[in-house]
């Protein structure tokens, strides 16, 4: 949008943008404005009124279009007052001037210098002037008063300065506002700044720090150094990664914390030689860092291989140099841009290492395969049975025997075990005797009752009495034999179980198994003798 477009566009927006414009200007028709060559003076008057008597605060795009059209239109090369009207009206247009000042060669350098000087004197848009104007010839060809004016203003920001330090050698001593530093080595150098490893010499405990200075002593470089503190404060507020904090900030330097490790450039070389494994911890944590920043929907522009350090002791990535940031719509957009930067600035030789997106997909497949294998292993594994008290005791003793040195045999413990075993045997024998006596008493009562009932039933005839008595006696004999046989079996099984328990106790006593076996056999014989005596008693009663 500009004077080269139909003037109806301007007239359409005038009621909203220019409430203070004179009514005469509002009555200018399109045919008069469209003839720019013949009616240039009227157009100039219109634009000057547009600039001086209006407010562009709500429509900066329109103002930018007009400024660009003026600077690029040769019809207005003889009217530099229009640009000055913009400059005098609002500081917002100073950025537009700085941005478009070199898009045209219609104005002589003397006029453009006057514009720039007027902007600098007002103290507005120093960064834009130094970025778009002073970084180009003829200002870069040597010392310039406008550049010196901006530098002087920049150096008064904090009041702390060390002056231009283009080259620092090991052993050089530099004094800042709060430190006395001895340079040890150069850690890295870029187009605008350099970082040195230094040691404090304040006498309060020596400390290793980093000293960042300006390589080019120009306004844009100095202003960039002064923005370091704001960038660090933004990282601190974001809380997504660790960074080397600024200990002291000056106009043209910064004293920072020192961190040991390898930069992203060195790390990628080692990682590539090792096969670019996606299972590597450093690679996984780098991708996690990209995703963590993506969750904030903020794209940090300082995640370059030179600005990230892999701390091998703490096992994490640190930001050692700050940069700008940009807000994006979704986390996916942020992560995608980091993947692209990884391919462009980290993985320069893409023939050896796949793209970052492919590496992430490979890492996800490996993770899924590992999870599936763990699930199948857990599902196929049988549940461990709960150990019984006996098995638990055996496990504990075996474990203790492997960890505790062998101890001498304790004879008193084995004797106590034998005494306890004998007491148990006697108690079991007494129980058996009582049970047998009770069974005998019950049997005898039943037999007497049966005999009495049989005698009463057989009273009418003697032959019937004799036959029934014989049959009953035979049946009783059979029943007694069967009971005797069953009692013999039970006593034999009990004696066997007793012998087995004795053998086990003797084996645990250690070294006395033979004697225990003899005792077991004696007990078996004793149980058999008791059975025989019980038989003889029964026969006598009969």
UniProtKB/TrEMBL annotation:
Feature: compositional bias, Low complexity: 378-406
Name by which UniProt lists this protein: Protein kinase domain-containing protein
InterPro entries named among the record's database cross-references: Kinase-like_dom_sf
Bias type Acidic residues, positions: 500-509
UniProt biased composition (Basic and acidic residues): 365-375, 420-446, 471-499
Top-rank taxon: Eukaryota
Record SUPFAM superfamilies: Protein kinase-like (PK-like)
Bias-annotated ranges (Gly residues): 510-519
């Amino acid at each position: 949008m500009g004077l080269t477009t139909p003037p109806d566009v301007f007239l359409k927006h005038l009621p909203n943008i220019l409430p203070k414009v004179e009514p005469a200007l509002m009555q200018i028709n399109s045919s008069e404005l469209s003839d720019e060559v013949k009616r240039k003076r009227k157009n100039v008057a219109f634009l000057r009124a547009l600039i001086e008597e209006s407010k562009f605060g709500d429509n900066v795009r329109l103002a930018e279009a007009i400024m660009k059209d003026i600077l690029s239109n040769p019809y207005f090369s003889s009217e530099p007052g229009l640009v000055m009207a913009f400059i005098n009206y609002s500081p917002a247009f100073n950025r537009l001037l700085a941005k478009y000042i070199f898009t045209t060669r219609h104005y002589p350098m003397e006029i453009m210098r006057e514009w720039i000087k007027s902007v600098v004197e007002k103290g507005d848009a120093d960064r834009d002037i130094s970025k778009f104007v002073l970084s180009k010839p003829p200002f870069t060809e040597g010392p310039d008063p406008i550049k010196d004016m901006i530098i002087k203003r920049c150096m008064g920001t904090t009041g702390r300065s060390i002056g231009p330090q283009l080259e620092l050698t090991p052993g050089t001593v530099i004094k800042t506002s709060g430190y006395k530093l001895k340079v040890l080595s150069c850690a890295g150098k870029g187009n605008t700044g350099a970082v040195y490893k230094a040691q404090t010499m304040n006498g309060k405990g020596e400390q290793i720090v980093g000293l960042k200075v300006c390589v080019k002593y120009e306004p844009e470089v100095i202003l960039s150094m002064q923005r370091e503190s704001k960038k660090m404060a933004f990282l601190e507020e974001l809380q997504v990664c660790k960074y080397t904090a600024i200990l002291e900030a000056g106009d043209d330097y910064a004293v920072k914390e020192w961190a040991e490790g390898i930069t992203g450039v060195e790390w990628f070389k080692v990682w590539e030689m090792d096969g670019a494994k996606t299972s590597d911890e450093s690679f996984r944590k780098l991708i996690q860092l990209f995703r963590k920043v993506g969750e904030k929907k903020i794209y940090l522009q300082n995640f370059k291989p030179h600005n990230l350090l892999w701390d091998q002791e703490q096992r994490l990535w640190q930001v050692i140099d700050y940069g700008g940031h940009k807000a994006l719509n979704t986390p996916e957009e942020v992560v995608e841009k980091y993947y692209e930067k990884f391919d462009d600035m980290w993985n320069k030789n893409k023939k050896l290492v796949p793209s970052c997106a492919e590496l992430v997909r490979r890492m996800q497949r490996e993770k899924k395969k590992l999870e599936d294998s763990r699930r199948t292993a857990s599902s196929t594994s049988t549940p461990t049975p709960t150990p019984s008290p006996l098995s638990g005791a055996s496990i504990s003793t075996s474990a203790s025997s492997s960890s505790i040195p062998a101890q001498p045999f304790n004879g008193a413990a084995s004797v106590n075990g034998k005494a306890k075993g004998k007491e148990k045997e006697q108690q079991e024998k007494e129980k058996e005797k009582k049970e047998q006596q009770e069974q005998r008493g019950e049997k005898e009562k039943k037999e007497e009752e049966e005999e009495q009932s049989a005698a009463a039933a057989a009273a009418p005839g003697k032959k019937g009495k004799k036959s029934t008595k014989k049959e009953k006696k035979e049946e009783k004999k059979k029943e007694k034999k069967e009971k005797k046989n069953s009692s013999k079996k039970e006593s034999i099984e009990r004696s066997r179980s007793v012998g087995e328990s004795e053998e086990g106790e003797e084996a645990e006593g250690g070294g006395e198994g033979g004697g225990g076996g003899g005792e077991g056999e004696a007990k078996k014989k004793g149980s058999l003798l008791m059975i025989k005596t019980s038989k003889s008693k029964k026969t006598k009663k009969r």
